[in-house]
């Protein structure tokens, strides 16, 4: 029998397990897939590294700084700013605080009104003031309303904020919480946007490598959970029955609700189904790169111009993403995730046609090597005047963790796992491990 069983080895489950093990608690981490990572996985296809959906990490995430060894990850940064496609050409949106020379040229480009450029600097000063936690006490609205009330024009909303943060939130209406937007803007402004040299799966892989031998069980799909005499019996398809005194579900609501059937059906803390934002990423192999730098390319012409929201040449970010002599291009669509081969084929043709309008006939020679429709990509962080409070069990002995419990981000997943673990350490009377923050109930959105 194990003291605590955690179902789901994404970042939340991994960080929860590591925090508990660091305090000497006996933990079993159960994962249905062949490897840990949850939504953060990387496939190797013909020598190319394909992240399951376009993903990046913000290096100033507080929880990431706490959890990861950045040097060992060999992080490769994207160039600050973006190339914005508008009026049939590309415009560089530069960060004046990091690339002053490029920003001087950007200042002369009328794709964005001068007053909006000045407001971006004002916004940066606003979100950088004080402590990060102060953001979570700001008045909350949708991101779109926040930006409009800040004074930004329709031009910069349509040409930068909607495609850039639409690609971050995976929704173009920018209905996401303004507090989360302010937090992210601060993270972008103060740190780098990067990927590990060998793909995003290096993040969960690094955490999993720190677990004790035997803690992580893969290929172990949970069939049923029962409870008797205050103990849980977790029936798996390949690892038999695992008994535990405490249960942590580190999976999304649509996966954990069936598992909780009969265990916590009447609990007021039972998670409710929520909206999830969708995305699809197509990967293309090419002989030459349409963009000669590691920078994100944005569709500043609107969804009516074509389905691509953002594009990046991943082999220019890290050479390990493609075999020698080849380039890897990631083109992402938001708010769409076809559930059929026919739908994927149709969307891919539309993406390729859109790319050809950007880069010319060379796009016709790109070879599609992967497509990832992700229906449950990110939980929608709507503006609700929400504040996270103390970690509470769904039912006595049953806890939830994951980015849906905090913020839809790597930071949120890591923080949720840590906070649940620290709540359990308080419950069990175990000592909080050194170099880990004390159990807290600080707001996260």
From TrEMBL:
GO terms for molecular function: oxidoreductase activity. Pfam families: Amino_oxidase. InterPro entries: Amino_oxidase (IPR002937), FAD/NAD-bd_sf (IPR036188). Residues 11-425 form the Amine oxidase domain. This is Phytoene dehydrogenase-like protein. It comes from Acidipila rosea.
């Amino acid at each position: 029998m194990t003291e605590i069983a955690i179902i789901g080895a994404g970042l939340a489950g991994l960080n929860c397990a590591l925090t508990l093990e660091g305090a000497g608690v006996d933990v079993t981490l159960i994962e249905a897939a062949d490897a840990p990572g949850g939504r953060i996985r990387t496939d190797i296809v013909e020598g190319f590294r394909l992240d399951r959906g376009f993903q990046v990490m913000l290096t100033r995430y507080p929880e990431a700084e706490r959890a990861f060894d950045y040097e060992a990850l060999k992080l490769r940064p994207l160039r600050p700013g973006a190339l914005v496609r508008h009026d049939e050409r590309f415009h560089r949106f530069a960060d004046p605080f990091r690339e002053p020379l490029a920003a001087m040229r950007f200042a002369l480009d009328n794709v964005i009104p001068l007053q909006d450029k000045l407001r971006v600097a004002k916004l940066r000063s606003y979100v950088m003031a004080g402590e990060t936690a102060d953001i979570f006490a700001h008045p909350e609205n949708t991101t779109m309303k926040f930006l409009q009330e800040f004074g930004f024009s329709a031009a910069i909303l349509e040409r930068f904020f909607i495609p850039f943060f639409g690609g971050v939130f995976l929704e173009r209406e920018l209905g996401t919480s303004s507090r989360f937007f302010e937090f992210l803007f601060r993270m972008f402004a103060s740190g780098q946007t990067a990927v590990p040299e060998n793909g995003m799966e290096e993040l969960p892989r690094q955490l999993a490598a720190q677990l004790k031998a035997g803690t992580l069980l893969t290929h172990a799909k949970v069939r049923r959970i029962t409870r008797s005499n205050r103990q849980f019996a977790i029936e798996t398809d390949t690892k038999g029955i695992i008994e535990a005194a405490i249960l942590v579900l580190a999976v999304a609501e649509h996966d954990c609700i069936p598992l909780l059937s009969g265990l916590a059906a009447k609990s007021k803390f039972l998670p409710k189904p929520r909206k999830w934002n969708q995305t699809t990423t197509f990967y293309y192999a090419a002989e030459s790169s349409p963009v000669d730098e590691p920078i994100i390319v944005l569709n500043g012409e609107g969804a009516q111009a074509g389905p691509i929201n953002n594009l990046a040449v991943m082999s220019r970010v890290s050479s390990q993403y493609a075999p020698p002599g080849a380039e890897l291009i990631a083109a992402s669509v938001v708010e769409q995730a076809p559930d059929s081969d026919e739908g994927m084929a149709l969307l891919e043709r539309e993406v390729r046609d859109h790319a050809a309008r950007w880069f010319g006939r060379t796009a016709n020679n790109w070879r599609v090597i992967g497509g990832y429709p992700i229906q449950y990509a990110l939980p929608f962080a709507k503006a609700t005047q929400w504040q996270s409070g103390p970690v509470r069990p769904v039912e006595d002995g049953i806890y939830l963790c994951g980015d849906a419990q905090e913020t839809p981000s790597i930071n949120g997943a890591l923080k949720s796992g840590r906070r649940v673990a620290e709540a359990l350490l308080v419950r069990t009377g175990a000592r909080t491990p050194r170099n880990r923050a004390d159990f807290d109930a600080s707001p996260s959105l």
